[in-house]
Amino acid sequence: MLNPFLWLIDTVIWLYIWVLIAAAVMSWLVAFNVVNPQNQVVRNIGEVLYRLTEPALRPIRNLLPNLGGIDISPVILVLLLLFIRNLIFWLFA
Predict the structure, then answer these.
(1) Which regions of the chain are under pLDDT 50?
(2) Which one, out of 4, 23, 50, 55, has a CA that is 20 to 30 A from the CA of 75?
(3) Where are the domains of the chain?
């Protein structure tokens, strides 16, 4: 049986990973003109995703060198979150 506290941490980490994926996909859709950022719904979704992900991504972006327009900070953050998740389960489960 899984500890409810560990279950909550696991769920929050996975939800945040999905938010990071949604933010990356949204940025690609805007960059390739698939969706119109002038649309109010698209703008609101983009703003919510930006506000949820930018505080965690900004410190990683500050540490990374310039890769010529390629942003790998979401990948690094996902790997870091999965490492933290596994570490917590290894320590407390």
Answers:
(1) none
(2) 4
(3) 8-60+71-92
